[in-house]
Design a protein that fits this description.
Structural class: alpha+beta
InterPro entries: DUF4878, NTF2-like_dom_sf, Zinc_ribbon_dom
Number of strands: 4
Strand order of the largest sheet: 1-2-3-4
Organism: Cohnella yongneupensis
Distance between the termini: 137 Å
CATH topology of the domain at 104-203: Nuclear Transport Factor 2, Chain: A
Protein name: Zinc-ribbon domain-containing protein
Radius of gyration: 50 Å
Keywords: Membrane, Transmembrane, Transmembrane helix
CATH class of the domain at 104-203: Alpha Beta
CATH architecture of the domain at 104-203: Roll
Strand content: 15-25%
Shape: rod-shaped
């Protein structure tokens, strides 16, 4: 038999433990040394289990420095949109307002600015070849000289685009001009017919050349 208090072995008819002095007669049952070496688990308590960190698979290290991060579709979409805006802004910056002949209105505005500057070379670039009579290089230079001579003492003060009517590859632009001739200020309304050739708009009028 063994003492329930200290686990000391004693004789079957002993009344007191020879090691700790505890009363053996009052002990309901003998204890084994194993009971003292391994305490019982409290009732209802399960052994603690080491849990995996959140989002970590079994057997996989929680931190993997060499694994590339996956970019979400939303992030890639925002980056793509930003690139489109940047590229579009650069195109707009280097091409001005879309080109001097990208629309009927812009062609007429460029024509008026050339008249204000009395620039014959700029004017002929805005007029269709048919309106100029399909001139060769020498004839074109003569037309430019004639244009600049016709400016005379008059000058264009201001202009206003009143209306634009586009029908496929042709258009009509109504405008108002204020100019000074022989010291007198005058205002007139008129219109230009235009034609679209290879993506550019040209004034398509009989210029009298």
């Amino acid at each position: 038999m063994f003492c329930n208090h200290c686990g000391n072995q004693h004789e079957a008819n002993a009344k007191f433990c020879t090691k700790c002095g505890a009363s053996i007669a009052q002990q309901p049952q003998a204890a084994t040394p194993a009971q003292y070496q391994q305490p019982a688990q409290p009732y209802g308590q399960q052994p603690l289990v080491q849990q995996q960190p959140y989002g970590q698979q079994q057997g996989q290290p929680f931190y993997q420095p060499n694994q590339p991060r996956q970019m979400s579709k939303q992030t890639m979409g925002l980056i793509a949109a930003g690139l489109v805006i940047i590229v579009g802004g650069l195109i707009f910056y280097f091409s001005g307002s879309g080109g001097s002949q990208s629309s009927p209105k812009s062609t007429v505005e460029s024509f008026m600015e050339a008249v204000k500057a009395k620039d014959g070379k700029a004017l002929v670039k805005l007029i269709s070849d048919d309106s100029l009579g399909n001139p060769d290089k020498d004839e074109l230079n003569d037309i430019i000289d004639e244009m600049e001579d016709n400016f005379g003492s008059g000058s264009l003060k201001s202009y206003k685009i009143l209306d634009t009517d586009i029908d496929d590859d042709t258009a009509t632009v109504d405008y108002e001009v204020t100019y000074s001739e022989d010291g007198e200020k005058q205002t007139e309304e008129d219109s230009f017919d235009l034609v679209k050739v290879e993506g550019k708009w040209y004034i398509d009028e009989d210029m009298g050349f």
